[in-house]
Amino acid sequence: MNHQVVTYLAEGVDWIRFDVDALLGQFWNNTIEGLSQGSIYALVALGYTLVYGVLRLINFAHSEVFVFGVFAAYFTFYGLGFRPGPTVTLGIGELILFLLLALIAAMAVSGATAVVLERVAYRPLRRRNAPSLVFLITAIGASFVMQQVLFIWRGGNAEQAIRLLRPEPVFTVFNTAVTNIQIITVLAALVLLVVADTFINRTRLGRGIRAVAQDPDTATLMGVNKERVIMITFLVGGLLAGAAALFYLMKIPQGASYQGGFLLGIKAFTAAVLGGIGNLRGALLGGLLLGVVENYGQSLFGGDWRDIVAFVLLIVILMFRPTGILGESLGKARV
Amino acid sequence: MSDVTDTGAKPGGEVDDDAEVPAVGGIVAELRHMSAEERARHEAEVAEVVAPDREIEVGVGDTLLAMRDVTLRFGGLVALDSVSFEIKRGEILGLIGPNGAGKTTCFNVITGVYRPTAGQVLLEGHPLGRRKRYAITQLGIARTFQNIRLFNEMTALENVVVGADARHRTSVLGALVRGPRHHREERQAVERAMALLEFVGIADRAADKAKNLPYGYQRRLEIARALATEPKLLCLDEPAAGFNPAEKEGLMELIRTIRDDGYTVLLIEHDMRLVMGVTDRIVVLEFGKKIAAGLPAEIRENPAVIAAYLGVPDDGVA
């Protein structure tokens, strides 16, 4: 019927297209790639959602907690003797070992960064009962400070990529190759999300987190150590961001960059709001949805429209469901 | 890891002995099918959990908690004016007074919500000092709230388990990897919470979210949650508010049983009949000052108390 590869809206208009063929032609490819990117968004989104649930604070510095993890993973590779250049061929055992080491390093660094951030930036404000606007501006300030620290240390250019793993198709579905990196990312993210969900819903500390999220004053009167709960919340969010950092580094064409967290952080935050902030499963759903839809949008409208599609989606969904798809949770009871 | 259900409480009868926490639905179903004999044995077990053997012999009569000249000011407002009284171990002490007399403020000072401007609160002779609220709870003071404050999005059982958590020690790592110790403590906490729900008489709704419980159940749930922290002193803030006479009678019975199990109770209550019927001693506050203390019979006859309640002017004739 329509044999044009690209359908322009009007004669001479080339800044936007409406390319249904591309959308349909790359549908499965986009879906799979979107799910794998969405997994990364979801892992980072959990950090926003957890902290919001407990403190009603949008921790804008969470994107830098993530970037610290990216650098940790990068320099773990470096420390293990790898240098930028062509991908080295490794045995499967070695590969798993090195990736695990990088994962542990990234999670440790991000987790520690989040806890230190809480101690240095937020706890003193809590002690003084600062209004929530002060927390917000502190979060933004902390984000800039951390970004600039990385800039001063490593300069403005992204590191050169170090690759341990070449993306290789493992199997094909719907005529679309699924790569090893995509599989690792999605599976690892799912495992971590299940662990986090279990932790929040079925352990003593998770119960403490939910209790504080619902009613901090009552929780402390029932013997819950609120400060400890807050620390653990930041720690868990940091650990997940650290894991996301490694998968991100495996995916992007360049190495670690001081700016790497900005857009990803905003998108992860968007994912959290999309799913219903404070809601763990909402973060997962929002992350995956965002990842998939922005890939569709890219095919349909052209590459430059990718981020626009992501945020228009947010606005449209919030118009109809202001509390996000699954609704706010964790602390629904709190006004 | 295979199980990602919402909460620890699973509906249905899948009682899996050495895995996960016991299913709530299972316990409730079990109770229904018990013979009278089994039921009696089970009730004895419940009683054992609710009133465990204390390490220290319950010495009735020695001072558990003392308020020493406690004054609390908010700017120019004096909420508590040099209030002193003692709560003896094993008694039910009633705290009464007209609206705004400072009863709930007293609770807030005892539980660490407010720190006294002057004076001290001593638990077993040790000043509470600048301890944090959770630490005071762990020392052994628990409370309920005049306006119910449950964790609404949690099940009744979970609410009580949060209280029980105050007595459990699992490291962050232990909980993250859900190690054997965490596992054991979870089991114990859930069993204990279930026993407490039975004790206060609301076990049939254990798996329901707190917000979906009937009003009377919510009040009783608050008591169960407070008991779960294993308090030496249980502070009840108008636990019978909004109850009809029959419900009040039932609650009095419960409070007496709690006392008989070895707990010490501090009770704020508006209903005079209830207070007179259940308390061992009474302290009366008015405008933040203690105006009387004594046995219920004495308080009933005390002219200052009658004046405070009936609003008779100080100079007799207006």
TrEMBL record, chain A:
GO biological process: D-alanine transmembrane transport; L-alanine transport; L-isoleucine import across plasma membrane
Gene Ontology MF terms in the entry: L-isoleucine transmembrane transporter activity; L-leucine transmembrane transporter activity; L-phenylalanine transmembrane transporter activity; L-valine transmembrane transporter activity
Domain of life: Bacteria
Keyword presence, Transmembrane: yes
Keywords: Amino-acid transport, Cell inner membrane, Cell membrane, Membrane, Transmembrane, Transmembrane helix, Transport
GO cellular component terms attached to this protein's record: plasma membrane
Family listed: Belongs to the binding-protein-dependent transport system permease family. LivHM subfamily.
Protein's UniProt name: Branched-chain amino acid transport system permease protein
From TrEMBL, chain B:
Domain (ABC transporter) ranges: 65-312
Superkingdom of the source species: Bacteria
GO MF annotation: an example: ATP binding
Keyword Transport appears in the UniProt entry: yes
Keywords: ATP-binding, Nucleotide-binding, Transport
GO biological process: D-alanine transmembrane transport; L-alanine transport; L-isoleucine import across plasma membrane; L-valine import across plasma membrane
Transmembrane segments: none
Keyword field contains Signal: no
Family matches, as Pfam families: ABC_tran (PF00005), BCA_ABC_TP_C (PF12399)
One GO cellular component term: plasma membrane
Protein name: Branched-chain amino acid transport system ATP-binding protein
